[in-house]
Write a structure and sequence with these properties.
By secondary structure, this protein is of the alpha+beta class. The chain has two domains: about 60 residues, Winged helix-like DNA-binding domain superfamily/Winged helix DNA-binding domain (Arc Repressor Mutant, subunit A); about 60 residues, Dna Ligase, domain 1 (2-Layer Sandwich), CATH 3.30.1490.190. The strands form two sheets. It has a three-stranded antiparallel beta sheet with strand order 1-3-2. A three-stranded mixed beta sheet has the order 5-4-6, with no helix packed on it. α1 crosses α2 and α2 crosses α3. The longest helix has 13 residues. About 15% of the residues are buried.
Length: about 130
């Protein structure tokens, strides 16, 4: 694996759920002169090969995480877009299964829980008693 690809993986590991620009900034600190488009291409390639997971909650830029190979979901703050992982309460088995799979061979369920994170709900006057 190239130095550039390793730097992108390291940045994704150090900055969970980071967007491409945040990863570019982190990689640029260790690989001076790397181009933004190069980082975008590497993110695409690493995602296509299953080394990164690309997530894109509706209304937000794509984010990347190194947690692949398991089935987990995400909590997304509607205000600041912070993302947290949500593990299944029943182990590694799917927590959701369609009643009728319509002939699909289902291999993934992508569930996103939306709300306000602790910091934003404290700042939101609607959340005050």
């Amino acid at each position: 694996m190239t130095r550039q690809r390793l730097a992108v993986l390291d940045a994704a590991h150090e900055h969970p759920h980071a967007d491409a620009d945040r990863i570019f900034d982190a990689v640029g600190a260790v690989v001076p002169g790397i181009g933004r488009h190069t980082v975008y291409d590497i993110l695409h390639a690493l995602s296509a090969h299953g080394l990164l997971r690309r997530i894109q909650p509706a209304g937000f830029h794509a984010r990347y995480e190194v947690r692949v190979g398991d089935s987990h979901h995400h909590l997304v703050c509607r205000s600041c877009a912070v993302i947290s992982d949500v593990d299944h309460t029943i182990g590694d088995s799917r927590c959701l299964s369609p009643v009728d799979d319509a002939g699909f061979d289902v291999d993934e369920a992508d569930v996103v829980f939306w709300g306000l994170c602790r910091d934003c709900s404290t700042d939101d006057p609607r959340q005050q008693p």
